[in-house]
Amino acid sequence: MRQSSSEPQESAESEKPTSADKIASPIIDMLARLHVLVIGPGLGRDPLMQDTVEHVICAAKDKGIPIVLDADALQLVQKDLNIVKGYTEAVLTPNVVEFDRLCKAAGVESSDSDSETQRVEALASALGGVTIIQKGKHDYISNGKITMTDDLEGGKKRSGGQGDTLTGSIATFLAWRKAYIDRLWNDPETPCLDKHEMIGLAAFGGSAVTRECSRIAFLKRGRSLQASDLTDEIHNAFMRLFGEIDDDDNSSKL
What we know:
Blueprint: H1 9-14, H2 20-30, E1 37-39, H3 47-62, E2 67-69, H4 72-79, E3 90-92, H5 96-106, H6 116-126, E4 131-134, E5 139-142, E6 147-150, H7 162-181, H8 195-221, H9 227-232, H10 234-242
Parallel strand pairs: 1-2, 2-3, 3-4
Antiparallel strand pairs: 4-5, 5-6
Helix pairs in contact: 2-3, 4-5, 7-8, 8-10
């Protein structure tokens, strides 16, 4: 091929994956090693890939693995709500447009008098307790029973790809949740947190870190801000929000 020859057409076609099962199999084999699964960023809408993702999600549900779904993975949910319905370990992070599409698919109707918190509660309830983060000027978080609003200041510009910081941050907090549930560390002086409550806290934590990253990055970059600039500010944002565990300085925001 380096001398300008081309690969035989029949050979090339025979090596292409022919089913979602075959593509999903090696991914499913890795699930036992994962604390959390993020699906959506960079996924695309190729039908074979979407079918593959459906297989992976079903396998992750069988193992009780938390799942964070964003971007093109939300289209999959929109087409078949049963993929996540009733799975309380799932977190969906739609923007305003994606949120409206999910509401339509779930048959959730709202009036102009309904607040944003009422709308996100209604969708989360319709999906059987899935945690929803409706991204926007403020982030609204609900599992249908417990609802929170993240109104921390963010940057004045939103860049495409910024949601990747959110999903990654949520996934990190959910991984720490798994470690907490497994008692990798134990604080006898602090009451144990409910594992379902911690999903909402992980969602809020991810939202807060992302908004703080955006705020700091915008102060430095202004209108030239890109999504990758948020990644550079994760440490600073985390420290401003939470501080060090053993630090006596109480200047953190949360």
